[in-house]
Amino acid sequence: MSPFSPAELAGRVERAAEETRAAGLNGLIITPGPDLLYFSGYASSAATERLTALLIPAEDPPVLLVPKLETADAKGAAGGLVKIIDWMDGMDPYAIFGEMLLPAGRYGISDNTSAVHLLGLQAAMPESSYAALSSAMPMLRAVKGPEELTRLGDAGQAADQAYQEVLRVPFAGRKEAEVASDLASLLRKHGHSQVDFTSVGSGPNGANPHHEAGERVISPGDVVVLDFGGIKDGYGSDTTRTVFVGDEPPAEIRRVHELVRRAQQAAFDAVRPGVECQEIDRVARQVIADGGYGEYFIHRTGHGIGLTTHEPPYMVEGETHTLRPGMCFSIEPGIYLPGRFGVRIEDIVAVTEDGGERLNNTSHSLATVS
Ligand code: ZN
Ligand code: ZN
Ligand code: ZN
To answer: For residue 173, how far is its CA from the centre of ligand 1 (angstroms)?
Structure first.
């Protein structure tokens, strides 16, 4: 069964068709993954070499093309909402799908569509052209409905509980990978069905924002960046806290941590409808630059979250889309001192009618662990 109500799905498809017309496209081609789940409720068992694709035309009702052996699953999930047609092995699915497209039409297509399917469509419909959804219509899934916000809030709370519990495990003397596996179990214990990442960056490894977790043994005096998240009841969590191993963090570590905390708070305080996404990035960056560490903040300030843990909108210079109530994204400034340590603080924030609301609420103070 679909995790979404028929009314919710119908509303999404209707809005997508409107936005498609506004974007000057003839329709959307939605393939298995988060986009298909979002619009049809159908989590196709696997992305396979067989074509499954939902067409949302700008003007007509949507049609889902599935391989015959998956028709029953698709009908069960999509709940009769979408017209389903199927194809059998031995037929040319691209020709069948192509017949539903306008010759020389322009279509938005799911980012994660595999090359083999896009190439098949291009061969069948050489006059048509295609644009990645993330560039043609990046805000398609960005505004969350009430039900989605509830689930994102629940996922955030579960991640908060996992963090509070991981602070009780010993860090010193254990490998990063062991602490990471504790975090993964805690996320699952608190209802996550999928763990996307449990990154544990100790000492110099913390200065690499995308360090995962390795063989390094954590020792007293280390700063440790913990960044973890996954999927609970279909929606994502993603939070970061930085902790110190020992009782008394040295002054420099406290100062860098405090600067990141202030940057995160300032960016949060700037959240309200109508503000450009890039402004959130600028606000965080300014605080860190003013503190003298501008060159060590080496990534964008945040990314959207929903059915996946990284999606539009991006809080990055040049992103001029404006915040709207219901958008949900991370605010995660950091400072990375090569060869030494890193600090990052990340919360998921939902835009409200007049500001922002954090979906992660554990303390921002520099926690100490043993
Ligand atoms: Zn990342
Ligand atoms: Zn993160
Ligand atoms: Zn993140």
So the answer is: 27
